[in-house]
Amino acid sequence: MSGENKVFHFWAAVPTGYVEVAIDEMHEILTGVQIERLENGRVHTRVFFKYERSPLRLLELRSLHAVYAVLADMRGITVGTPGLERIVAHVAKVEMGAAQRLAQACDRGVVADAFHVQATVQGNHRFGPAQVVHAVQKALVRDCSLRAGASEKGLLLQIQVRGRSAVLGLRLRSAEGGSHRAIGYCLGRMVGLESGDRVLWLRKDGGEVAELTRSFGVAVYAGVGSVWRPARTAEGHWFCWNGSDLPILEEECSHIMVTCARGSEEHVLAELARILPFGGVALVEVEGREMLAALLADRTALDVAAVLPVGSPGRQRYLYALERIDEQELIQLHTIS
Fold it and tell me: Could you tell me where the DSSP H helices lie in 145-219?
């Protein structure tokens, strides 16, 4: 098979705020990977890259929400009917045989002559996702000899229109997926979790707990409120949490991950300063920066290692990485200086 009949360009959907972690993992696993460009989004950031080796290595990446092979990368998409026609013209020229071989290499059970297509449209276009799907389906059936309608085992195609550009991608199937898995992995990688560590997890998406347990071999003590309950088979040590007081465990946890509700910032910081061991790291997600930043300015026991804006469909959220430091050592340093 010649190189012209293979797909070497991809994009990764990465939860916004965790791009650096994802790129580090990509360089670690994908020999010779070339990062081409980033396109920021509120919930996900698209990382476009070139990779010429085994596509099965792409399925090993755990920091990604999803991976797509780029089948068509389009520019000059106008807002009206000519823009939609330009998209259809590009789709009609796609080398679908290369896409089918790639899909089969990643999943032997795929039905390569069937497809399901989805679309998103951002910008002031006079056509919407439904019109894009309808037009692209017709082109794929007419010009690529495919049949529409198989979403479970067929080719998963995604077309995204943003302003004057559009991209058609083939989603690579993997056994696992989803933002909860990707974010859980990124959180663990950010704080350098190692087998045997103990993590106190007080966040919203319980799927993160399974990822922390499986990928890093840590013991996770997860608190949930009265509304949501984990499945009996869920990994981790689960307990009820009132959303305020951080429970003291029989043994200290070296890492704490918590989503802080608006108005509870002061109480949560006081609890962190009380139970976080020296050298321990806490990841605190908040809705706004102002209150937490003001409170941290008066707390010498917690050092801010990083602040990251993270993806959210609503108001902007921030992830603070806080480290517990020895106040006596801090006093000595100030005295010396």
Answer: 179-190, 207-216
